[in-house]
Design a protein that fits this description.
8-stranded mixed β-sheet, FAD/NAD(P)-binding domain, alpha/beta
Length: 255
């Protein structure tokens, strides 16, 4: 029985891996913006793989605010909660609240149900850079990267790559630093996240969601980190709408 279990797991996992070495969109980071983007791109019939360095996908939404398992979402994004059957409570004229654990698990479930392949415990440590375009991701095990072990990674090819790594905007920072490229930002480089301003941060999260170099898009908090906009704290409407926007941009390019 023990050998059967081992064979079942390894054969199914490696079969899935072999079928997903090349795809339409690679998304680094599995927070709410990345998950919304992934499920929308998959809905349009494209092949999507996500990479999460930690064991559990979901990003910072799991923890709510200071581990109070509740998050706030503006009216503009409530339609997504309705569509994904995430229950919420009306707080005032422009905000609702919902359970952070339920909301995060629902986003993961709906992305996976639509065919998105989520690689957990895998960290994107670099990009594939070819013909002046970001053309894939370079991946290693999350624990290998965190421990600083000298273990060579593997690469996956993708038509587009999305940096959804949150505050550090790690993919964009690495691509810019290693390849000396000029980004589609006012300064031509990663500007760095500013301190908290919830209203401005929410608006700019959506505004900053765009392609910043051929083949490379940013969404969610990574977009604000790249463009030098404020963080916004435990309000998630802008994150969800950022995922919607980047999906639309990518679907239009893939067409």
């Amino acid at each position: 029985m023990d050998l059967e279990v081992t064979k079942a797991i390894t054969e199914s996992w490696f079969s899935k891996l072999q079928e997903n070495l090349c795809f339409d969109a690679a998304i680094a980071g599995t927070g709410p913006s990345g998950l919304i983007a992934a499920l929308r791109i998959a809905e349009a019939g494209y092949k999507v793989s996500m990479f999460e360095s930690k064991l559990a996908p979901g990003g910072g939404m799991w923890g709510g605010a200071m581990m109070f398992s509740s998050v706030a979402i503006q009216n503009e994004a409530v339609y997504l909660l309705d569509e994904l059957e995430i229950p919420y409570e009306r707080y005032n004229d422009h905000l609702v609240t919902c359970d952070s654990v339920l909301a995060t698990s629902a986003l993961i479930y709906h992305a996976a149900k639509r065919g998105v392949l989520i690689h957990n415990a895998m960290s994107v440590e670099d990009v594939v850079f070819k013909d002046d375009r970001v053309s894939g991701v370079v991946v290693n095990w999350g624990p290998v990267v965190r421990e600083g072990l000298h273990v060579d990674p593997l690469s996956f090819r993708a038509k587009v790559v999305v940096d959804a790594t949150g505050h550090p905007c790690m993919i964009t920072e690495t691509a810019a630093r290693k390849n000396n490229i000029i980004l589609n930002t006012p300064a031509g480089k990663v500007c760095g996240e500013r301190s908290l301003n919830a209203a401005e941060g929410e608006a700019m999260t959506v505004e900053n969601t765009k392609m910043i170099y051929p083949g490379l898009y940013v969404c969610g908090m990574a977009a604000n980190g790249v463009f030098g906009s404020p963080r916004m704290g435990p309000v998630f409407g802008g994150m969800l709408l950022s995922g919607e926007k980047v999906a639309k941009l990518i679907i239009e390019e893939l067409k």
